[in-house]
Amino acid sequence: MKLIIHRGTHEIGGSCVEISTATTRIVLDVGMPLVDAAREPFNSFSIRGKTVAELLSCGVLPKVRGLFEEAPGPQAILLSHAHLDHVGLLQHSRPEIPVYASKGTSKMMLAGALFAGRNELPRERHREIRSGVPFQVGDIRVTPFSVDHSIFDSVAFQVETEGRSLLYSGDIRTHGRKPLLTKNLVSEATRRRIDVLLMEGTHLGGDSLTGITEPDLEETILPLIQGAPGIVLAAFSPMDVDRLVTLYKATRRANRTFVVDVYAAFILHLVASQANISSPVAEQGIRVYYHQTFASTYVKRRMETIAKKFAGDRITLEEVLANPSSHVMTFRPSMVNLDFGGRLPEKSRCLYSYWKGYLKNPDWVDLQERIRTAGGDFLHAHTSGHIFINDLIEFVKAIGPRCIVPIHTFEPQEFLRHFPNVRILNDGEQFSPS
Known about the structure:
Blueprint: E1 2-7, E2 16-20, E3 25-28, H1 52-57, E4 76-78, H2 84-87, E5 99-102, H3 103-116, E6 126-129, E7 135-137, E8 140-146, E9 155-161, E10 164-168, H4 180-189, E11 196-200, H5 214-226, E12 232-235, H6 241-253, E13 257-261, H7 262-271, E14 286-289, H8 292-295, H9 304-309, H10 317-322, E15 327-330, H11 335-338, E16 349-352, H12 362-373, E17 377-380, H13 389-399, E18 403-407, E19 430-431
Parallel strand pairs: 3-4, 4-5, 5-6, 10-11, 11-18, 12-15, 12-16, 13-14, 13-15, 16-17
Antiparallel strand pairs: 1-2, 1-19, 2-3, 7-8, 8-9, 9-10
Helix pairs in contact: 3-7, 5-6
């Protein structure tokens, strides 16, 4: 077994890992970078229209033989989850390479393509995987395991070949609504000794030793909704189904109606058959708002079927504003001008449920000023999608790997403070576990 991390040894995002034997090569994730060389946010719009050759020469595409350009390529691409820093470069890969991903990952990519200008997973390339069910690619045996992360149906991968076993954590946490997934992963993956644990370390080097759980966040949000004098605007990623559930439960406990946009409604519709979650219907305290971006473009974008699907549970902005203190509404900064005419309702409360680093974006800076002008408040109500440091230590000890290889971290050397058996690699460096 040979391992090469093409991107991710010293950065968060852009993950791309190659595992090979004498006859088989597979690639784990093909992520878009989150930052540039100066650790400034990566501008994904800057690469639109560029050729594969141009993207390879400027370093956006990792140089994996045959993955993007004409050459003998890997036999498979495996996707851990649908976040852009793990799937964002898939559309540039050679179309004949099959893509192994969970049903939920395919669904999230579809939703992202329809509502967020992203790329879906082509049906002809998709090979559906199921947690705990192994599959074979050449002489490599792969077993996916469901993990708790801030996007639906994420997985870790156990890779076995030539008498060696590697576990790729993907992005993982232990403080969400599915803590049993981690226990199951540890139990199943350690039936054989793990030679290499390829472990995400997003929080290492920071101060996130621990933090609140997703159920704790519900308890935090509940009084913020109950005590709000006016409308509550909830800013979060609808692909984070756990957060959708958290906000929905807190909203219902506060005796308010949860108003979701069509993007969030479509995600609820997609996952209802796989998860114990309410469909977006009025009988369950959920109404669907067609914000102006959707309402003015869905015919042109040939999304009439989706528009009709939620028409019976639709709510207008006039209905919401007639009784603002009875609603919690999914929200994004563009709605200030497009939907609210540049002026938010008096005493609006915005619950911001993203990473604080995004608040430097001009859209969020402007929104906070608009909230202040309306006499409202802007509150951070969030918990991480990544494993906290203390939980990471416990998880690694439970796995008991012979070797730990850091990935998805700016501070790989921080692993050395906690574990004796760490191998820090550089991007493009080949490693063969002994």
